[in-house]
Specification:
Blueprint: H1 3-16, H2 21-40, E1 46-51, E2 56-66, E3 78-80, H3 81-87, E4 96-101, H4 108-136, E5 141-149, E6 153-157, E7 163-167, E8 182-193, E9 196-202, H5 206-216, H6 218-221, E10 225-233, E11 237-244, H7 251-256, H8 261-269, E12 274-279, H9 284-291, E13 299-303, E14 308-313, H10 315-322, H11 327-336, E15 339-344, H12 365-373, H13 379-383, H14 387-393, H15 398-413
Parallel strand pairs: 2-3, 11-12, 14-15
Antiparallel strand pairs: 1-2, 2-4, 5-6, 5-8, 6-7, 8-9, 10-11, 13-14
Length: 414
């Protein structure tokens, strides 16, 4: 294989991978200089000129002519007068010899190795370009097509045929994909695994929801409305705290849109995830009240030392504050940065009840805490539910719940 064929085939391959001309020339020169070092031990006194467009390659070895008896005669950049005159008979001491080295002089094996090295270098460069491209896109939304569905992940391809990965843990639980589906997600992270870029996508990240708001709500994209914080239980519920520095703009109304037009587009993309948009305020008590929406809070007590907030509600508001599966109170706690405990307010004509704390000698403290997390703070509030209700609302075993019922009933029987 001569130089012209080698360079032209490499240049064509490089152009197909969208490698720019200066980078192509640099790679060619690096490979040819590596060949020179292998044969001549150094490339310091070699000049390499490449014209990738025409497939031209010129390699010149440059040496200074010295006397045959000179001590420098063995230096890599020196040549004896006798050897120089074999190249050109009228050379004199002190002149420089430019000796052209043909590619064939390196041997067929070296040329084949050079070809393989060139292709590998382009492939490595392609991986670096892909890694750098997606590293800059971390946190941005991309659209890709599903081409393979595996048990632990879905493989997608972008518009350029690059493989992207959507792990099971980064999928919304209600997501169901088929080959050929178009999927939106954010670039979650980019890793280099064994020399290959691994691009991980996510649909569960709060950042994905933030980007969807930016796409659907021009005021968010333009910075007129700021998203202060997002908390999510993917596919179930999300709470988004927003604020505007312009009094003329209602941040909640702008995010929801006319008749919910803007929020509905986001909800559909997130598999009907219930999204609460909340007006942010630095007034903690007001912020907590808004975070627990749609429940109406009667009163609030804040303990700064323990970072806990006690919220008191009318009995019919407790279940609204807790929400289906406990998601409402869990997300409200994350949004405000405090642990929220829900307590029922007793009506004046309600029969005397007993606080669960009174049973601390018979019921473990962690069990009482578990019950309180779901708004059950008194004996009667627990007894008003069935065993099945408690199994569903707490993480307690059936045997434990039966024992709780026995202890509480015994109190009222006495």
């Amino acid at each position: 294989m001569d130089a012209k064929v080698l360079i032209e085939s490499f240049a064509e391959f490089a152009r197909s991978k969208n490698v720019d001309r200066p980078t192509m020339i640099r790679i060619l020169e690096d490979v040819f200089r590596a060949m020179i070092r292998k044969k001549f031990e150094t490339d310091e006194n070699f000049d390499v000129t490449i014209n990738a467009d025409k497939g031209d390659l010129e390699i010149f070895r440059i040496r200074e002519i010295v006397d045959d008896n000179s001590e420098d005669i063995w230096d890599f950049d020196k040549i004896s007068l006798t050897d120089a005159r074999k190249i050109e008979p009228d050379f004199e001491i002190g002149e420089e010899v430019y000796e052209k080295i043909e590619l064939e002089e390196f041997g067929r094996r070296a040329v084949q190795m050079a070809r393989q090295t060139l292709i590998q270098k382009i492939k490595d460069l392609e991986k670096d370009i892909l890694f750098n491209k997606y590293e800059e896109l971390v946190g941005e939304v991309v659209t890709a097509e599903v081409y393979q569905i595996l048990s632990r992940e879905v493989l997608l391809i972008d518009g350029e045929g690059n493989e992207l990965i959507l792990p099971k843990g980064e999928q919304i639980p209600k997501d169901r994909f088929r080959k050929g589906d178009t999927v939106k997600a954010i670039v979650h992270k980019v890793d280099m695994m064994n020399g290959n870029p691994k691009i991980i996508l996510s649909r569960t990240s709060p950042v994905f929801l933030e980007r969807l708001f930016e796409n659907e709500v021009p005021e968010v994209y333009d910075g007129l409305i700021t998203i202060v914080k997002i908390v999510r239980e993917p596919g179930e519920r999300a709470k988004v705290a927003v604020e505007s520095y312009d009094d003329r703009i209602d941040p909640v109304g702008a995010c929801v849109g006319m008749k919910g037009s803007r929020i509905h587009a986001i909800v559909r993309e997130l598999q009907n995830e219930n999204i609460d948009v909340i007006n942010y305020t630095e007034n903690l008590e007001l912020y907590v009240s808004r975070a627990l929406s749609p429940a109406k809070v009667s009163s609030i007590s804040v303990n700064e030392e323990t970072k806990r907030i006690s919220v008191f509600l009318k009995p019919d508001q407790v279940s609204l504050a807790i929400g289906k599966g406990g998601y409402n109170i869990k997300l409200a706690s994350k949004l405000v940065g405090y642990e929220i405990d829900v307590f029922r307010e007793l009506n004046e004509n309600e029969e005397e009840d007993v606080d669960l704390v009174e049973f601390a000698d018979e019921i473990d403290a962690w069990i009482i805490d578990e019950l309180k997390k779901t708004g059950l703070d008194t004996a009667k509030s627990v007894l008003a539910l069935t065993k099945e209700d408690l199994v569903r609302r707490t993480e307690l075993e059936e045997e434990t719940i039966e024992e709780i019922f026995r202890i509480l009933r015994q109190e009222f029987e006495q």
